[in-house]
TrEMBL record:
InterPro entries: 6-phosphogluconolactonase_DevB (IPR005900), 6PGL (IPR039104), Glc/Gal-6P_isomerase (IPR006148), NagB/RpiA_transferase-like (IPR037171)
Swiss-Prot/TrEMBL catalytic activity: 6-phospho-D-glucono-1,5-lactone + H2O = 6-phospho-D-gluconate + H(+)
Name recorded for this polypeptide: Probable 6-phosphogluconolactonase
Pfam family name, one: Glucosamine_iso
Cross-referenced SUPFAM superfamilies: NagB/RpiA/CoA transferase-like
Any one GO MF annotation of this record: 6-phosphogluconolactonase activity
Record's keyword terms, sorted: Hydrolase
E.C. numbers: 3.1.1.31
Biological source species: Cinchona calisaya
PANTHER family in UniProt: 6-PHOSPHOGLUCONOLACTONASE, 6-PHOSPHOGLUCONOLACTONASE-RELATED
Pathway the protein contributes to: Carbohydrate degradation; pentose phosphate pathway; D-ribulose 5-phosphate from D-glucose 6-phosphate (oxidative stage): step 2/3
Domain called Glucosamine/galactosamine-6-phosphate isomerase: residue spans: 15-242
CDD domains: 6PGL (cd01400)
Family the entry assigns: Belongs to the glucosamine/galactosamine-6-phosphate isomerase family. 6-phosphogluconolactonase subfamily.
């Protein structure tokens, strides 16, 4: 079932598996469109349950039909731990997705895991500035912030997206591209994250949300016009598509 309002579409599916099937088609279609239009596809990954829900992209027909050589991968947020640590979003994505498709290693932009949270955020932002200077990453004409083709977001039961949490100041950052947090309420505490100005400069955002434990946050973010959840602030320049299973949508 689909409903549309402005640039926001909400898709509801019976099961998580149907969400995964639809997400693979949506992502593959966007890959084809952006590669045709601009020669590359910049994709921002979250951690958490998203990577498992991307599983059908690594299988036929997409594994063979998507032009992986044109993909560039970035992280919406990352835990400041070694890249081979069980808490690393890079490791999660590598094990569940990146190791199964042929994206060039030079197109995979992981954080520098040898730095402190402050320095890792500065470093990630500087590397983005370099990509902008080399015309690999465009800036939004409307906002002046980097503009990614597709961001794939998850949401926590507290309504957080990326590492932008309720009751933390990072969600209000308006100047930085990448910021850091040392006291994330969800472990591990040290993280870096894109800021809302970057998130909302995207061409396309998919909010991929499944499971009953998230139903209250979905109801607030989607059903309450005065919601104060970080997830309610997701509002891209382009299109926003919510992918929900029946459990996540049960309180709408
Ligand atoms: O800690 C994080 O949590 C969010 C949500 O994860 P989920 O398992 O509830 O989908 C995730 O999007 C973020 O990237 C991650 O660092």
């Amino acid at each position: 079932m689909a409903s549309e309002k402005g640039n926001k579409t909400t898709l509801k599916f019976d099961t998580e598996d149907e969400v995964a099937v639809a997400l693979a088609k949506y992502t593959a279609d966007l890959s084809e469109r952006f590669i045709k239009e601009k020669g590359s596809f910049t994709v921002v990954l979250s951690g958490g349950s998203l990577i498992e829900t991307m599983r059908y992209l690594t299988q036929p027909p997409y594994a063979g039909s998507v032009d992986w050589s044109k993909w560039c991968i970035f992280w919406l947020d990352e835990r400041v731990v070694p890249l081979d640590h069980p808490d690393s979003n890079y490791k999660l994505a590598w094990d569940g997705f990146l190791s199964k498709v042929s994206i060039p290693q030079s197109n995979i932009y992981a954080i520098n895991d040898k730095k402190s949270p402050e320095d890792a955020a500065d470093d990630y932002e500087e590397r983005h500035q370099d990509l902008v200077a080399r015309k690999i990453l465009p800036l939004s004409e409307a906002t002046g912030f980097p503009k990614f083709d597709l961001m794939l977001l998850g949401m926590g039961p507290d309504g957080h997206v990326a590492s932008l949490f309720p009751n933390r100041t990072q969600r209000f950052e308006k100047k930085r591209w990448v910021t850091f947090i040392k006291d994330s309420p969800k472990p591990p505490p040290p993280r870096i994250t894109y800021t809302f100005p970057v998130i909302n400069s995207s061409s396309e955002i998919a909010m991929v949300v499944t499971g009953a434990e998230i139903a209250n946050a979905v109801k607030d973010a989607l059903g309450n016009p005065n919601s104060e959840l970080p997830a309610a602030e997701v509002s891209p320049e382009g299109l926003l598509t919510w992918f929900l299973d029946k459990d996540a949508a049960s309180k709408l």
